[in-house]
Amino acid sequence: MRSPVNIVSSILTKWTRIFSHNQVPEPSTSAGYLVAHVLGKKTIATVSKQARLSSKQLLHVQQLCLQRLQRRPVQYIVGEWDFCDLTLKMKPPVLIPRPETEELVHLVLADLNDRCPSSALIMDVGCGSGAICLWLLKNRPDDRSIAVDISTEACQLTRDNAESTDLLRRLAVHRCDVTTESASTLKWPQSFDVVVSNPPYITPAEMADLDPELTWYEDERALLGGGPDGMDIIKEVVRFSQQTLKRGGSLWLEVGLAHPPLLRQFVMQHCTGLNFIAAHPDFTGRLRFCHLQKS
Amino acid sequence: MPEAPLDDNDIILEVTAGVGGQEAMLFTKEIFEMYEKYALFMNWQVELYEHSTTELGGLRRASAGISGLGVYRFLKFEGGVHRVQRVPKTEKSGRVHTSTMTVAIMPQPKEIDIVIKPKDIEMDFSKSSGKGGQSVNTTDSCVRLVHKPTGIVAECQTERSQLQNRERAMKMLKARIYNKELEEQVANEWSTRRLQVGSRQRSEKIRTYNYPQDRVTDHRIGGNQSNLREFISGGQSLHCLIKCLLKESWKESLLEMVEYSNDT
């Protein structure tokens, strides 16, 4: 006897099959999150597979799944996502935080706890949804932060997330393009204990291979690194840090997998006063996080 | 009552359906919920690690971390086989069936109790296409950890954040490794006590829930509790039984001490 069409397990099977058939990535995971969302839960793990959906809920699931069929990222459909233990609003085209960045913030936290036992001033370059600066502020109650982004939408989203996490008091957000000379020399000379950034680092070759989830919905300015090796923006952030870091301050960067050795070379050859301290691996064991320090 | 060494540890509660097919899985769900409610009653914190539901509404297995004051102390004697006797919802002829489920209570190790080398742990997670990072959107955050020297595994997918799943899987892994070590130590001890903890309890029938007769019987101290519905709601009734068990256990350990000093 077939199960009735309005129970969770049937709905999951149905939409997983439809997503799969239409080459939507993570078909069953996507279906799980969307059904969970309609039922008011974060993940499908705790939803009873026998729960029945009302016709209103069934319609809601359908609406969300149609969006997914158009390759809209789950995080944008649901309107929020978790970054470590922080729940943040997600809104296109602001970049959705990646799991690797959860590791970056822990490295920065350890560095801050080590060098700045009392309070510190943190600069988040390219703040996006605010994940990095907000998580650091939450875990360092005496710190303050300035966050900048080239995108007005990103700045607004960061402010919204700061407000909903009750951290706006310690954060100032500015729309700013750090590649312009004026940004670094005029505004914040030698001010920061830490500059942290997840700058766009994708190469032109990689751009061509990106899924529609990224190219159709996320801000290209948050992805395209610039230059043949995707390092243009990274280099700008490094230059910006040279001017704005305190003596002994740290620059922490998340970069593409090919970048750590290139960055090390760049710093050695072109950046007086900045030292490449180390490259750290992500959870796949590949080097991705670069630690630089101003001497 | 004096505290035993692990009494103030947090625990991991694991439930597994036993004999009885769907009915056993429904019963597993009810018992898991009983402990979730008891945790609420006792003002403890519950973190869900694993939760495998079945298509027909039952629970195959589940794991949760429970933390708070005296968690291990109060829950340590809940480990073992729980048995239910009732007419299943799907049963047409009105016959009473017996089904079982197992509860395991594992104290979580403190920092100093356990040393795990990072290189001994293998982590499986959603393989993002090639380069990871900015180049892909990933929502599958399931993490599976394998402790290579012992083969012990822990998996978590209850959270959206991969890091949170990893942290919970790690807590589960550490508790399982720690408990394996603990049980190896205890295995050589001999005791006639009715109230014991550890792997020997895993297959012991400790309690029967009889619906037609509306009673709960703990087989270690005997006696019956009525109002099964109240008992299974994880409140005062369960708490009273647990306090009785603790008192009995203390009496037994005193007795053992006295016998030991008489023999020497």
Quick structural summary:
The complex is a heterodimer of chains A (about 300) and B (about 260). By secondary structure, chain A is an alpha/beta fold.
Computed CA radius of gyration of chain A, to the nearest angstrom: 21 Å
Order of helices and strands of chain A: HHHHEEHEHEHEHEHHHEHEE
Poorly predicted segments of chain B? none
Nearest-integer average pLDDT of chain B? 87
- In whole angstroms, the N-to-C terminal distance of chain A is 73 Å
What's the rounded overall pLDDT mean of chain A?
A: 93
Largest sheet of chain A: 7 strands, mixed
Helix content of chain A: 40-55%
Task: Give the strand line-up of the largest sheet of chain B.
Answer: 2-3-1-5-4-9-10-11
Main pleated sheet of chain B: 8 strands, mixed
Principal-axes geometry of chain A comes out as elongated
Total strands of chain A: 9
The helix count of chain B comes to 5
Helix share, percent of chain B: 25-40%
Largest interface: A-B, 52 and 30 residues
Describe this entry's structure for a reader.
- The complex is a heterodimer of chains A (295) and B (264).
- Chain A is α/β, with parallel strands linked by helices.
- Chain A has twelve helices and nine strands.
- Chain A has a seven-stranded mixed beta sheet, with helices on both faces.
- In chain A, helix 6 links the parallel strand 3 (121-125) and strand 4.
- In chain A, helix 2 packs antiparallel against helix 3 (55-69).
- Chain B has 264 residues and is α+β, with helices and mostly antiparallel strands.
- Chain B has five helices and eleven strands, in the order E-H-E-E-H-E-E-E-E-E-H-E-E-E-H-H.
- In chain B, the strands form two sheets. An eight-stranded mixed beta sheet of chain B has the order 2-3-1-5-4-9-10-11. Chain B has a three-stranded antiparallel beta sheet with strand order 6-7-8.
- Chains A and B meet through helix 2, strand 1 and helix 5 of A and strand 2 and helix 3 of B.
